[in-house]
Specification:
- This protein is of the alpha/beta class and 327 residues long.
- The chain has a domain at 5-186 and 219-247 and 292-305: Rossmann fold, CATH 3.40.50.720.
- The protein has helices at residues 13-24, 44-48, 60-68, 82-87, 89-110, 147-168, 192-203, 221-233, 253-263, 275-279, 294-297, 308-326; strands at residues 5-8, 29-33, 52-54, 72-75, 114-117, 172-177, 180-181, 205-209, 215-216, 219-220, 240-244, 251-252, 269-273.
- The strands form 4 sheets. Strands 3-2-1-4-5-6-11 form a 7-stranded parallel β-sheet, sandwiched between helices. A two-stranded parallel sheet has the order 7-10.
- Helix 1 (13-24) crosses helix 8, helix 5 (89-110) packs parallel to helix 6 and helix 7 packs across helix 12 (308-326).
- The longest helix is centred in the first third of the chain and has 22 residues, at 89-110.
- It starts with a strand and ends with a helix.
- The structure holds nicotinamide-adenine-dinucleotide.
- Nicotinamide-adenine-dinucleotide binds at residues 8-9, 11-15, 33-38, 56-58, 76-80, 95, 117, 119-120, 177, 179-180.
Amino acid sequence: MKKPILVTGGAGFIGSHLVDLFDKDNVDYLVLDNLSAGSVKNIPIAVAQNRFVNSDVKNYQLIQELINSASCVVHLACNVGVRNVIAYPLETIETNINSLKQIAYYCSLNNIPLVFFSTSLVYSPDKERKAQFAESDQTHTLGFHPVSMYVYSKKMGELICEYFHRTMNLSYIIIRPFNMIGIRQRSDSGMVVPSFIRSAILEGEIHIFGDGKQTRTFSDVKTAVKLLWQIIQNERSYGQIFNLATTEKVTSIFELAKSITGLIDKPIKIKTKPINEVYGNNYIDIQYRSPSLKKLRNYVREWKERDISEILVEIIEYEGSHLSKID
Ligand SMILES: NC(=O)c1ccc[n+]([C@@H]2O[C@H](COP(=O)([O-])OP(=O)(O)OC[C@H]3O[C@@H](n4cnc5c(N)ncnc54)[C@H](O)[C@@H]3O)[C@@H](O)[C@H]2O)c1
């Protein structure tokens, strides 16, 4: 019998959509999640079929046992979200770096492929050459700020994969996702789309941090996990890095807010606040972020891009029904 795919962080946002796809395609899997940000409500079938283990990736003995009996590890578990990373900086090191080091080691020992979720934040937007470096220059775009710890932990994670490949022949794929959106994403860790939608529904206001001119690409998570699964199944993908996004189209944060106001049937005010009032003096928001999907397109079948407002309507309906249940 083929061994299950171990999905760490599978009760979270992206993980639960991957689990949905696995259920639909009859792929054998096992979810490990400590539910710090995820929920069993996201993966009811996994729970009903005993495919869910409520534990932590820092439980190394258990992790080793689970990896020994897996065919592949998709490692999503991580301390993520601006607010979480600011609140628990050392947890970021423990979970994002130390646990990954152990997972990569056990995968190497057992010859199990590892799919590691990094982030698009590892890219530096500063492409200009500077002749001299001053101490006041930012060594990373997010500045001398706790959030940089998240970015560095992910960069370190990529280097850990590369290290174990070099020394123990680890078979890995590194995924760099660009702003995924869809249902089940939590607003409390600071994710922009659910935060905007929740405050629009509850308070009739949307709070933009910064001037709203900063741009992002917003990708449909349901499509993205299908692309991810094709990458995982493609032998040529191993030892490689992939941007994961379903569109190259950029949207400004102000445009996003405007679209949401147009989709909710009540008056909503858009307000702006200087970003440093929210995240502190040294926080630097990235102004422009967009992926090249040229490489990804060489590894997966063509896909149909979903319109952002179609995805937003789905999230608004989901948030609306969940908020009314809480009330
Ligand atoms: N969502 C995005 O747009 C995006 C962008 C870039 C990178 N990523 C990366 O993708 C991955 C998944 O992100 P997401 O948006 O689904 O986040 P998420 O917070 O919804 O999911 C992470 C899951 O990991 C679990 N978890 C956290 N710490 C754990 C621990 N110590 N042990 C076991 N489980 C633990 C949480 O409970 C949660 O269910 C993360 O590694 C993240 O850095 C996501």
